[in-house]
Amino acid sequence: MLDSKTSLTAFELASATVENWLDGAGAAYAKRSKTHDSRRKGASWDIELEHARLGPQIVRLSIPKDFPASTPEIHFDKKLCLVLPHVELDGKFCHDVEPSPKDYESPDGAVKAVIKSLAKFWTDTADSQWVNDEFHNERLSYWVHYCEQFRKAHAVPTPHSVRVALQPLKGVSEGKLSAYFSKSQKLRSEVMLATVGDLDPHSVAKRHGWADNTLVRGHALFVPMDNNIRWTPPDWPKTFEQLESFVAQVTDHEQSVIHWIQGKSDGRPHPFLVVLVQEKVCYGFLISPSLRHLIPPGIVPVAIERVDANWALARDHQVPVLQARREKRVLLLGCGSLGAPVAELLVRSGIDELHLLDKETLEPENCARHILGVDEMGLSKAVALTQRLHLLIPEVTVKHIRAPAANWIRDVCKPGMYDIVVDFTGESSVRVMLTHYRKHSLGSCPLVHAWVEPFCAAAHVVYLAPADLWPADDPGERLAAASWPDSTRIKLPACGAGFHPYGAADVWQAAGFAAERLLAVVDGKVADSTVWSWIKSKAFFQSLGFEIITGPLVPDSASVFDSVQTTRTLRDVLSND
Amino acid sequence: MHQQPQNTKRSHVIALAMEQRQESQQWEEFIVAMLKKLELPDDKRAAAEARYKEFGRHIAHKLGVTETDVHVVVQGSMRTQTTIHGDGRENFDLDVVVKLSGLTFEGLQESEPFFKQFGASLKGLEGAGDATPKNRCWRLPYPGEPFYFDVTPAIPMFAEITDTDLRVRDPITTWSPSNPEKFADWFCTIADKRLPFQEERIRKFAMEARTVVDPMPKDQVRINDILRRMVQLMKLHRDSYYKQQQSDARGEGKPISVILVTLAAKAYNEIVTTEPNAYSSTIEVALEVVARMPKFIDRGLLGIRVDNPALTGKRGENFADKWNSDKGLRNNEFNAWHGQLTTDLDALFSEEYSKRSENRIRNVFGNHGVSAWKASLLPQGVLSGLLSSAPAQQKGQPQLARPSGYRDSLA
């Protein structure tokens, strides 16, 4: 086989190397599998192993077809799923061996690493305490396996997806449940969504496009459980009675599932969902109704996806930062190619209330560098962007204002309405207007101006602390990295129409640059009025093919890809001027 | 090979088939590993030695004689290095003889007072528990230890202290002759003999060891001590065989160890001395030893005899003495057991190594053997075996750790 070495692919060669070993000297310990599935695996061998607690086992070692791009696999009897940790539903052992670049050169190394991992696992799992600890440490994975196993083993129609918009709980809390059934699948719900308190799950589902077909309303009960409560396969309630006593136990006998259901009963069938909440993770039990009181109600374990902002935006990590951002109200002027991506970055970062102002409609030619596309052609940019962000990001409140900036600032805006106002119009007139209306409309609200120079050759973000004003003569042009000839603007055969050529790749970099600094302002990390600039290299300016006179900030670099990012105080910038 | 007369002995046929399957080494390693598991562990052996070294002083003190008149001599399987943990016995049986000399014990006529007095002297040995009398010895149970001692008091057959011929108490004949040291020496001399193919293997092994760059696998164990290992194997098989029979009457007749040891040694000695070049594998020799054992049972005019090779002549001892007065019980049992051993070994070695079945292993090695075998299937056994079967790295290439890739940094 190895004689034809040159004609073998890297995959075939690696596989042949391992086959030579395992069919040769290794054959004393591993036998070719009789039930090898050649469509899915390159080759497989069975190894007889005696497990200290489980007796004799057949362990299968397989070389995947894309070996060594992926590692050799180990499969146990699938009955060992949830009996031993790190065993998936199909019996696959999560050996935690990552492919290594060396595996192409010495494929045996990958097999050895996997066997070593198996040997350690085999020894470790002799200890039932270790097994139990592993189950607890990765309890969410095993719970998901269990729910899937249950679904396959029982003829109970379980929902496709059970979602929970969780809020921080102060003890046991009731909530609402919306279940959506498609017409064809009357018994099996497509999506269920549970919310805490009085929040209507149907409105949330509609907002995110989950509310399809028939709605059935139900009830949810959220039961927090202490972090030190064990949640391993033997701990999981398997019957309604066990669930009742488990809930009683974790709530110091304050909560009864039976009483909760009886209290909600109105003679009509409703779905009931009990959600056990441990730290950031939810474990669900759907209660299936009792049949005319002949048999007790059943429970169906369900895996739960959290869809609340704390999880969706931060995975519950550094929640205080997120909470602070969620108290901020931001007015964003200008939803163009710079403002729109910044708006999206802000809400993805947790800004809770964002008002988007733009007077223009989306044109097809905006497509190249806007986050909206031709499907929203003809819609107001502010409206379309608001819809998009509402659809994408949970819990955020986005409002659209389709008006010229000056009108809104002058007529509607009042001090205290916003925590920060950001101007992405890039228009000198708006900057000057804001200077004049600052005190009247914004009060002590911080203000940020941001714009890009032609070709996105430079971007500037100017933060004005409450006490500072942008000079009314708009020194923006003098801030520019270079003096640009008029010819850089491509004119269109329409009154005053034209554009500077640059693409999404350029302007979205500027958006990231601006958003990063905006968030620092929002988080209160910037005290003094500051000017941030991102300026591409002299080589970039020279590559544009125009007579451009570059200023002192432009870095003297031979690569068009180089750039600098600078931070200056507003005072310094204006006094240098 | 073909020029030679065809060797049709079963031992040869089986060994040849195994050789063709290239399984000889695996089987040898397996047997050695199995026996190793069933031997007294080293730390316990050391504990046992520490125990019997106390005997001399203690007994001398209790009997009121000088320590130089008390000699403790290890005998039996401990001396022949064939100790094994058989079925049906909880603990290892360790035999020592306490040779008593000096005026006190000279010319003793009666054996009973001497035997009782000796038994009393064993009182107070630390950790030994209460001694119970057997025919020739006192048993010290050593509760809590994995062994017990059978302590046989012996006095010189004659006045000469240097002679190793001893006499020991016999409840029927008052005294019995005994020479445990000489018997053990006889056995060990034979057991230490090697066949040419073994010498060749050792030589080749040493040559290879010099040329191989990688360190040698630690557990490259093969059977060199064929006779000792076969004796262990036979004792194991006998114990498990009689455990399965569950008949006390038959159990009465089970072949005693010393007969197995004697017959096996004589068979091995014959092979080594008369046709040393006729064998090329350990398993073949082992099977041939078993096959030849019956022919060393002397079935002559004087009845059935298995003479103690260490006590010849008038003072001789027939280990099979009882065979002549038990209506054929022991004779039949020996034949039945020996037939079964032959069948079981044939069956075991005829199957593919990798298909070793629990039943066949139980038949040869007993229940303890099966447990030990199962334990050897734990990853330390199978998986480390699999790992060590991987082709060695190319010479001169340092073995670098396999660097791992990573993922999920963007999830």
Explain briefly what this protein structure is:
By secondary structure, chain A is of the alpha/beta class.
Structure description:
The complex is a heterodimer of chains A (577) and B (411). Chain A has 577 residues and is of the alpha/beta class. Chain A folds into 3 domains: 2-137, Ubiquitin Conjugating Enzyme, CATH 3.10.110; 156-307, no CATH class; 315-481 and 501-538 and 567-576, Rossmann fold (3-Layer(aba) Sandwich). Helices cover 31% and strands 24% of the residues of chain A. In chain A, helix 10 packs across helix 15 (504-522) and helix 12 runs parallel beside helix 13 (428-442). Chain A is globular and about 85 Å long. Chain A starts with 9 loop residues before the first helix and ends with a helix. Chain B is an alpha+beta fold and 411 residues long. Chain B folds into 2 domains: 10-37 and 186-210 and 219-375, no CATH class; 42-177, 2-Layer Sandwich (Beta Polymerase, domain 2), CATH 3.30.460.10. Chain B is 47% helix and 11% strand. In chain B, the strands form 2 sheets. In chain B, strands 1, 2, 3, 4, 5, 6 and 7 form a 7-stranded mixed beta sheet that branches. In chain B, a hairpin with a 3-residue loop joins strand 6 (166-170) and strand 7 (174-178). At the A-B interface, strand 2 and helix 2 of A face helix 14 of B.
Q: Count of helical segments of chain B? A: 14
Q: Rough shape of chain B?
A: globular
**Helix/strand/pairing category of chain B:** alpha+beta
Which CATH-level-2 architecture of the largest domain in chain A?
3-Layer(aba) Sandwich
CATH superfamily of the largest domain in chain A: NAD(P)-binding Rossmann-like Domain
Task: Give Rg of chain A in angstroms.
Answer: 31 Å
Order of helices and strands of chain B: HHHEHEHEEEEEHHHHHHEEHHH
The domain count of chain B comes to 2
* SS summary, helix count of chain A: 17
The first-level CATH class of the largest domain in chain A is given as Alpha Beta
- Average pLDDT of chain A works out at 90
Total beta strands of chain A: 23
Fill in the CATH topology of the largest domain in chain A.
Rossmann fold
Q: Supply the helix-strand structural class of chain A.
A: alpha/beta
Q: How is the biggest beta sheet of chain B arranged?
A: 7 strands, mixed
CA distance, first residue to last residue of chain B: 68 Å
